[in-house]
Amino acid sequence: MTLDGANTAIVVDSTADFPEAQDRFSNWRMVPLYVHFGDESRKDYVEIGPEEFYARLRTAPELPTTSQPTPGDFAAAYDDLAAYERIYVLTIAANLSGTNQSALVAAAEHGERVRVVDTETASAAVAMLGLAIQRRLDGGTTDDEIEALVARYKRDARLLFTVDTLEFLQRGGRIGRAAAFAGNLLHIKPILTIGAGEVVPIKRVRGNQKAVQEFRRSFEEATEDVPTLRVGIAAAEAPGRVETLRALVADVRPQAQVELATTLGPVVGTHAGPGTVGFFWFDDT
Q1: Is residue 3 within 8 Å of residue 137, measured between CB atoms?
Q2: DSSP structural state of residue 40
Q3: Do 124 and 158 form a contact (C-beta atoms < 8 A)?
């Protein structure tokens, strides 16, 4: 079976931080997670956006919590895509959220038509995998080719991020091996990644400038200046750092394309916190 944009759909959850997905691609859907301020529950990006969320976070007496979509939420998305013969569902790492399990439960009655992928990553990295799949759909592809792409993406795509404080990861139970960096982080920036669906520490540097230098060093060492190099940037209340990373990419790899520059949404922001900056790349050859 040849897969294309007319017969194959892509579903992402809202932690992909790609709320414009359906506006850009008629064959995409986004299933929101939930953020809770006390007893109040709001759908990520649908009922509360980043601007309102971070404003509330600054004055909230307690940190918000989050929860995954229900199987019924995913089932509604699959039903909305009834015209499509194949649906690829890309979820945040199963180790970080129960979202993947909800997607699988809802997919059970659809057989081979709905294929759920644990991306083993988060935020713009999920959206970037979806965009790589979409490029193949635009030219016609197969399940085997998409599965090979997913395997290579999991192996080769890179993600670095830094946070202003580990408090949010720690309180939300998402800190993983980065717990080794917990403690006094005054002026210290932890450089982190996600490996096998877990937050993994890389190193500690002093200040934002050193963090950017570490991003630059890693990016330069791991990439070549080719037009197939795709970059994503995501930040929480740190617009100046987004522009700094754009300039870094233009300087180090001028042929690369920054295909996504986004704001960390309410759910990811709950666990990462304001000041978080993520830097993602993948050579989509």
Answers
A1: yes
A2: E
A3: no
Q: Rounded to an integer, what distance in angstroms lies between the CA atom of residue 19 and that of residue 109? A: 27
Q: What's the angle, vertex CA 101, arms to CA 97 and CA 105, rounded to 5?
A: 155
**Single residue among 115, 140, 156 that ends a domain in this structure:** 156
Q: Residue 77 belongs to what H/E stretch?
A: helix 71-80
Q: Where are the beta strands (DSSP E) in the chain?
A: 8-13, 28-31, 34-37, 40-43, 65-67, 86-91, 114-118, 158-162, 188-195, 198-206, 229-235, 257-263, 277-283
User: How many residues comprise the chain?
Assistant: 285
| Whether 26 and 131 share a structural domain | yes
Assess whether 270 and 201 both reside in one domain: yes
Write the CA distances from 130 to 16, 21, 136, 255, integer angstroms.
Answer: 9, 10, 10, 21
Q: Is residue 3 part of a domain?
A: no
Specify the pTM. 0.93
- Give every residue of the chain whose pLDDT is below 70, as ranges: 165-187
Taking residue 231's Cβ as centre, other Cβ atoms within 10 Å add up to: 23
Number of CB atoms found within 10 A of residue 150's CB: 20
Q: Which domain does 188 fall in, by range?
A: 158-283
User: pLDDT (tens digit, 9 = 90+) per residue, 170-197?
Assistant: 665 554 544 545 555 556 788 889 888 7
